[in-house]
TrEMBL record:
GO molecular function, one term: metal ion binding
Gene that encodes it: pedF
Domain of life: Bacteria
Positions of the Cytochrome c domain: 53-133
Lineage of origin: Bacteria, Pseudomonadati, Campylobacterota, Epsilonproteobacteria, Campylobacterales
Keywords on record: Heme, Iron, Metal-binding
Species per Swiss-Prot/TrEMBL record: Arcobacter arenosus
InterPro entries attached to this UniProt entry: c550_proteobact, Cyt_c-like_dom, Cyt_c-like_dom_sf
UniProt protein name: Cytochrome c-550 PedF
Coiled coil (UniProt feature): none
């Protein structure tokens, strides 16, 4: 392989690595079919894993906004924490991280979703995560 081919492969590999997780721009989630929660934020998830619509909407919202870093089907690939490890009593912690994002030493590790996701969308995503946790036998 000559120098130009090696350089071309190096540039291609760098581009793939840099964009491997795709866009990290938060995406709105359509919550049609869920009970609307109003303008006052609740601190506990109002949806249950027995709510198939919340799980379905949460799966879609998770896939669009969380899977790039937290892993497909909520199984972390090591880039970001495994969200199945958050137990049901950590709703308020989850909400806080989603709304404020995570920044360390000036680096954004997770963007804020406060201006993009409604509380219905956030709680539906949390419901999907809890559904995956139960299906994966995590207690």
């Amino acid at each position: 392989m000559n120098k130009i081919e090696k350089l071309t492969l190096a540039v291609l590999f760098s581009a793939i690595t840099a964009f491997g997780h795709g866009s990290v721009t938060p995406q709105k989630v359509d919550t049609t079919g869920l009970k609307q929660l109003g303008d006052t934020w609740v601190s506990e998830n109002p949806y249950s894993t027995d709510n198939p619509k919340a799980v379905e909407i949460g799966r879609s919202g998770y896939s669009e906004n969380c899977a790039r870093c937290h892993g497909l089907d909520v199984i972390s690939g090591g880039i970001a924490p495994d969200l199945r490890e958050l137990d049901k009593f950590e709703d308020e912690y989850f909400l806080g991280k989603v709304l404020s994002g995570v920044t360390r030493n000036g680096n954004v590790y997770m963007p804020s979703f406060a201006d993009v996701l409604s509380q219905e969308a956030i709680w539906a995503i949390r419901t999907y995560i809890m559904d995956r946790r139960a299906k994966d036998g995590i207690e």
